[in-house]
Amino acid sequence: MKTLVILGSGGRLGAALARGYAQETRVIGFNHSQLDLANPQAIESALGALEFDALVNCAALTNVDYCETHREEAFAINAQAAGQIGAICARKKARCIHISTDYVFDGAKNTPYLETDEALPLSVYGESKRQGEIELLQSSPDHLAARVAWVFGPDRPSFVDQILKRALETDQLQAIGDKWSTPTSTQDLVEWLRPLLWEHRVGGLMHLTQSGACTWQEYGQFALDRAWEAGLPLKGRTVGFQAMASLAAFVAKRPVHTVLSTQRFAALTGQTPRCWQEAVAEYVRGWKPTV
Ligand SMILES: NC(=O)c1ccc[n+]([C@@H]2O[C@H](COP(=O)([O-])OP(=O)(O)OC[C@H]3O[C@@H](n4cnc5c(N)ncnc54)[C@H](OP(=O)(O)O)[C@@H]3O)[C@@H](O)[C@H]2O)c1
Fold first, then answer.
1. Could you tell me which of 82, 104, 109 has the C-alpha nearest to residue 180?
2. pTM of the model
3. pLDDT, tens only, 15-58
4. Which atom of ligand 1 is nearest to the CA of 63?
5. 150 CB less than 6 Å from ligand 1?
6. Which sign, positive or negative, has the C-alpha torsion 83, 84, 87, 89?
7. DSSP of the chain
8. Ligand 1 contacts CB of residue 10 (under 6 A)
9. Quick count: other Cβ atoms within 10 Å of Cβ 235?
10. Do the Cβ atoms of 151 and 139 come closer than 8 Å?
11. Ligand 1 touching residue 262 (CB < 6 A)
12. Is the CB of 60 under 6 A from ligand 1?
């Protein structure tokens, strides 16, 4: 049985991958308290002597606004650690997949971004994640940086859980209606990353999201409609429009349109990711108000 290391195994995606691969591989997970990526010595002592066949790095400083005012910390965790982990994997000839983000783009392109499009991040978070891709690929061109977007799943609440929870409490619902990307399921990422880990060991950049595109408002409305059909006693049934510019709580600048093309993945594996509506509908059908 192959050994797979998952970094960030306490997070939304890392926990889903650790569970998803537990039957078929020996999974060694590290959560934040077990390994702090801000500490290079800790990385070396945790991974340097460990024997493994592949590693997926899902750990990151993901709070976009926190990163904006903590640049050094963001770069240590999202960039320098990615390079160091890449170098350790290269030394061991282990497959290495690093999870990156749609926020490497400025969002000015109104058609889906290709891996070959120039990354021009608007925020410290985006810059640090872009630098992580660069440092990873400098450590070995065989490593893969997989860019994901709007990730949801059962292991940690995200937008879809928040809007459903709020709809159970109030009919005052709003979500941003002028920012586009693609909701992406952690369960589907388990399926898409499997062939990239073991079978199609290509290097470079790879976009991995569901198909299609929407705004937060459309995403929220779709989730509410499915929840109503499933019999959830919603107080709120309609998600109103909110302009991104009206959100005073946003410290960092966000890209407007970061729909990613998954052409490279589809050409390589023969799989086209299912549309976001199908993945969200399935998630909402299994959703419990306690999440
Ligand atoms: N969620 C999205 O919509 C989204 C969109 C685009 C890209 N991504 C990327 O997808 C990946 C997975 O994100 P996610 O959605 O699973 O987010 P998440 O739930 O926030 O997971 C990130 C994990 O990293 C851990 N972490 C933070 N600082 C750390 C440190 N110094 N050392 C070790 N671990 C640390 C966190 O632990 P604690 O929580 O205990 O601190 C958390 O478990 C990340 O690379 C993220 O940039 C996510």
1. 109
2. 0.97
3. 999 999 999 999 999 999 999 999 999 999 999 999 999 999 99
4. 20
5. yes
6. negative
7. --EEEEETTTSHHHHHHHHHTTTTSEEEEE-TTT--TT-HHHHHHHHTT---SEEEE------HHHHHT-HHHHHIIIIIHHHHHHHHHHHHT-EEEEEEEGGGS-S--SSPBPTTSPP--SSHHHHHHHHHHHHHHHH-TTSEEEEE-SEE-TTS--HHHHHHHHHHH-S--EEESS-EE--EEHHHHHHHHHHHHHT----EEEE---BS-EEHHHHHHHHHHHHHHTT---S---PEEE-GGG-TT--S---SB--B--HHHHHHHS-PPPBHHHHHHHHHHT--TT-
8. yes
9. 12
10. no
11. no
12. yes
Report d(CA 284, CA 291) in Å as an integer. Answer: 11
Q: Which amino acid is at 13?
A: L
**What residues act catalytically?**
125
Task: Set out the domains of the chain in order of their start, with CATH numbers.
Answer: 3-157+183-212+258-274 (3.40.50.720)
Structure confidence by residue, pLDDT tens digits, 202-259: 999 999 999 999 999 999 999 999 999 999 999 999 999 999 999 878 899 999 999 9
Residue type, 111: T
Distance between Cα 143 and ligand 1 center (Å): 19
Token pair 């409609």: residue? 225
CA distance 10 to 34: 10
- CB crowding 138-171: b at 16 or more within 10 Å, else e: ebbebbbbbbbbbbbbbbbeebbbebbebbeeee
Structure token digits, residue 147: 């860019």
